[in-house]
Amino acid sequence: MIRIIIIDDEILARIGIQTFLEGKQDIMVQGTFSSSLDALAYLRGGSQVDIVITDIEMPDMDGLAFIKAVRDENLSTGIIIVSCHDNFSYAREALELGADSYILKQEVTEEKLNEVIEKINGEKILPRLAEKSPGGKERWTQEGQVSCSSYAVGVLKLQSRDSPDDSLLSGHVDKTMLIHLLDNIVEKEGMGTFFSPYNKEMFILFQFPGEQSAGKKAEQLQTYCDGLNQNVRLFVNERLLIGCSGFFEELKEMRERYQEGLAMLRQDFYEQGKWFFAADRSGMGRKVSFSPDADRFTEEGWMEEFGRQLGDFLEHCRARMEDPDLVKKELFHGMNRFIYALAQKYSLASQLILGFGGKLEEIMNAPCVSRLEQELTAEMQELSRSLLKRLADDTMESVLQYLEAHICEAIPLTEAAQLSFMSVPHFCKRFKEYTGETYVKYVNNRRVEKIREYLDCGKYSLNEIASLMNFQNMNYMIRLFKTTTGMTIREYKRTLKKRNGRDTGPD
Question: Which of 163, 321, 328, 336 is most buried, by the most CB atoms less than 10 A from its CB?
Fold first, then answer.
């Protein structure tokens, strides 16, 4: 709870600001004052105030003098100046004296106040509150540091189907009751200090005796988190995900360690059956890379190799607790590099390849590593199938053009397969898929059609045609013609003669 007092000699101004703040679950207006001196006496009396909102022009003590007195006496509170003076010198002097923010009265809105309060809350209030022991008792050294304590920050998130990815609270759970429950558990069990600024975050500053070993601290932390999860499940029947930072000794590290705990919370991306994630700093922050080989894309077994490479990459990242956001970023860039390399290599299919690239961003939004791996692999399999078919079709078309240009030659199956850079079995399969015929049947049909062309011309004898078609045995040519057409060459020539009324050459 953020405790606030308001100072202004104009009652309407006090009421206006108070109206903006009332009703906020995380803000309490502890009092309003028309006198700066009265407010200063209130602070001197030991009242716990987090933020003071004050005017500059006051009848007994102006706002600038008030700021100086608060700072000189080390009265720990944030200060927001709300003034009608738009002269920069006032704002500069106020900020130099120790004010945290300066807002013109004509610019005061509920949103603006909330923004400024939230900023001060993050920069001043949380570190100050964190310097309290679990029981609310402060233990200070002469240097002002809390003695004989070490800490860990645990960031909490309620695992819920209707909770947005960027929200640390579930949408359907009563947030006020949940926060109250967690606050009570943390205080009762002596875990440390619970925070929920603006109901947007939930985290705990766990506190441990400084002399306790690292192993004992880890055991105690696990016990604390187990208890929290059990109580929350009884209350809302949902799991509480907890991401914990490493242990630290100085409270000035709190903000950094909060980010560390938040990063650990995102480890849920890797293991969605797990709820507790503790930092291992040795594996964090290291650069990872993912670079599929576009040059070998058309090789047999490439897709299997891609699947292994992707799985190894993701497992490597999980084991080292890499930040999922950084992993997705690297994966996204690696796949884009791969896609553009493919597009350059296979320009005829660039539209198909780049179309796949348009799906990458959606794939990267997968909520967990298994879903991401599944969706990316599925899309890659579809791209591989479509691209290989396209490339095979292009290759087959080239092979057919070559066969057409050399139809009078006997092109063996092995030679045709070599032209396509495929194995013989793979070539046979792709050839039949593309033409609807086996290679041998297709070639025989085209050679018979060529024989017909020579017969239709009427200029060549059968021996000459056999020679032109590179048949070493004329009888084989005659048998092939009959097998393919269902009639002998002689029968064909008679039919042709009757149809055309002309001589078709010697039999």
Answer: 321
Instruction: Retrieve residue 413's tokens.
Output: 């199956």
Give the predicted TM-score (pTM) of the model.
Answer: 0.46
- What is the spatial distance between Cα 342 and Cα 449, in angstroms, rounded to a whole number? 40
Q: Whole-angstrom Cα distance, residue 200 to residue 266? A: 16
According to DSSP, the residues that pair with 263 across neighbouring strands are none
| Apex 388 CA angle, 384 and 391, nearest 5 | 145
SS3 194: strand
Mean pLDDT, the chain, rounded, equals 79
Residue with more model confidence, 191 or 268: 191
Q: Which residue spans within 48-189 are E strands per DSSP? A: 51-54, 78-83, 101-104, 149-158
* Domains assigned to the chain: 2-130 (3.40.50.2300), 149-279 (3.30.70.270), 302-392 (no CATH), 406-500 (1.10.10.60)
As a whole number, mean pLDDT of residues 206-212 equals: 85
Taking the CA of residue 350 as centre, how many other CA atoms within 13 Å lie in the half-sphere pointing to its CB?
A: 7
224 Cβ contact list (under 8 Å, min separation 6): 154, 189, 191, 206
Helices and strands counted in the chain (H then E)? 20, 10
Question: Hunting for tokens 């109901």 — which residue is that?
Answer: 199
Nearest-5° angle of CA 297, CA 301, CA 305?
80
Sheet holding 240-244, edge to edge: 192-195, 203-209, 149-158, 240-244, 276-278
Instruction: State yes or no: pLDDT of 487 exceeds 80.
Output: yes
